[in-house]
Amino acid sequence: MPTPGGRGGLGPRGFLTEEEKENLPKVEKALIFRILSYMKPYRLQFAFVFIAILLSAVVGLLPSIITGKIVDQALINQDMKLLIRLLFMAFATLAVSQIIGVLETYINAWISQRIIFDMKNQMYHHLQYMPHSFFTTEKQGDIITRMNTDISGVSTVISGTLSHVVSNVATVVTTLVALFTMSWQLAIVGIVIIPLLILPTKRVGKNQWKIRSDSQAKNDEMNQLINESLSVSGSMLVKLFTREEREYEKFTRVNSELTKLNLKEQRSGSWFRVVMGMFTQVGPLLIYFAGGYLIISRMDESLTVGTITAMVALINRLYRPVQDLLNLQVDFTRSLALFTRIFEYFDMKSSIVTPENGKKPDVTCRDIVYEHVAFSYDPEVQILKDVSFTVPGGQMYAIVGPSGSGKSTVVNLIPRLYDVSGGSVRIGGVDVRDFDLSYLRSNVGVVSQETYLFNGTIKENLLYAKEDATDEELIEACKNASIHDFIMNQPDGYNTVVGNRGLKLSGGEKQRLSIARVILKDPKILILDEATSALDSISENAIQTALELLMKGRTSIVIAHRLSTILQADSILVVKDGVIAEQGSHESLLALGKVYKELYETQFRQILDMEEGADGVRRTDYWGTIEEETNGF
Question: In this structure, are residues 344 and 219 in contact, taking their beta carbons and an 8 Å threshold?
Answer without folding.
Answer: no
